[in-house]
Amino acid sequence: MLSQDELLTRLLDFLHRSPSPWHATANMAARLESAGFRRLDERDAWSLTPGDRVYVTRNDSSIIALQLPETRLEALRMIGAHTDSPGLRLKPNAAQTAAGWLQLGVEVYGGALLAPWFDRELGLAGRVHVRHPDGRLEGRLLHVDRPVAIIPSLAIHLDREANSGRALNAQTQMAPVLLQGGEEGDLPRLLKEWIAEQHAIEAFELLDFELGFHDMQPPARVGGKGELIASARLDNLLSCFIGLEALLASDGKQGVVLVANDHEEVGSASACGAQGPFLGDVLRRVHERLGDGSEEGFIRLIQASRMISCDNAHALHPNFQDKHDAAHGPALNGGPVIKVNASQRYATNSATAALFRDLCREAEVPVQSFVTRADMGCGSTIGPITATELGVPALDVGVPQWAMHSIRETAGSEDVAYLTRVLAAFCNRPELA
């Protein structure tokens, strides 16, 4: 396994190159292929044999990687994460003008903290679809990796109550500024220029796009001893990265599944989200080829399997300690966090938590617990959704972090290696009961 510094260098590079779910999925796919995994297409008939290492994507924004055992397929060690993060997405007819400026209308994707988006140099990234002169339609990734827009704050002289707390209106107050003197027709022209520049294509028609803004400040190690990581999209690309590292560091003897779904931040109800059929479709096809193909056999496989859903946890904030239950305030660099909620907002139960605690003991990694205050609401993850859709015994864990859903989040640098070691031990574990 890599040293902590090597692991963090690779993490920061992955975060920088993954400004959208589509880029994150493409980068994970490239890493899998370089490690010998074979890509499957859902439209084709699959040929699978014991010991295969394969992966499949859906919508180009969700990915499932499978390491199939060389012996009989009896249980799967599943690691779950999600590729999407809260942010600002471009509207289809985004161009608007005001006070001599071309601005871009946005939608808020997920539960984003809005205030940190002001006064940031913003790039643009996502997926576009074009038509070539021969009539062929093609999807391409676009990553404008330079500052092209900004959302300026209103000066405090013009809003003396700004520091007293006020609501932000994403429709009227958060349109990024793009071009002085620009007109509405300038946006498609600029998009075509950026596409042509990035992909070296000239004659094409831009048909549609799914694009979002991203912070241009690069990921970094922070702190007097580099004990922190600061970056956009730590929730939840950090879990995607750790899950992939654990899979690739495993010994390859056991059946392992890594699933990273899109659309978790907006409820997971999509064809490629955790509430959709993606994971079930893939596992049933695997079972048909390597199991006995029966419905009973599939249920037996799922019940013998376990899922660790990885999504970051709220760390104890030194300035807001009263926001945590006094006995459940996870510390940065204190190890992975088991997340518990009696109302099943997390999938953890005592049996799955016991398995994880034993894995932490085996990997010599500290472990923590998080339960939200009884007088506060609790978020959720793909864990309960996947458990509901598939029936697999599951639990929710995560790396502790500050500033969840901000444009720039913070986590502990030691926790990356901690959770990677535990998940690698999970991938290698012969018995799951």
TrEMBL record:
Keyword terms: Aminopeptidase, Hydrolase, Metal-binding, Metalloprotease, Protease, Zinc
One GO CC annotation: cytoplasm
GO biological process: proteolysis
Xref: CDD domains: M18_DAP
Listed Gene3D superfamilies: Aminopeptidase i, Domain 2 (2.30.250.10), Zn peptidases (3.40.630.10)
SUPFAM superfamilies found in the cross-reference section: Aminopeptidase/glucanase lid domain (SSF101821), Zn-dependent exopeptidases (SSF53187)
EC number: 3.4.11.-
Protein's recorded name: M18 family aminopeptidase
Protein source organism: Halomonas icarae
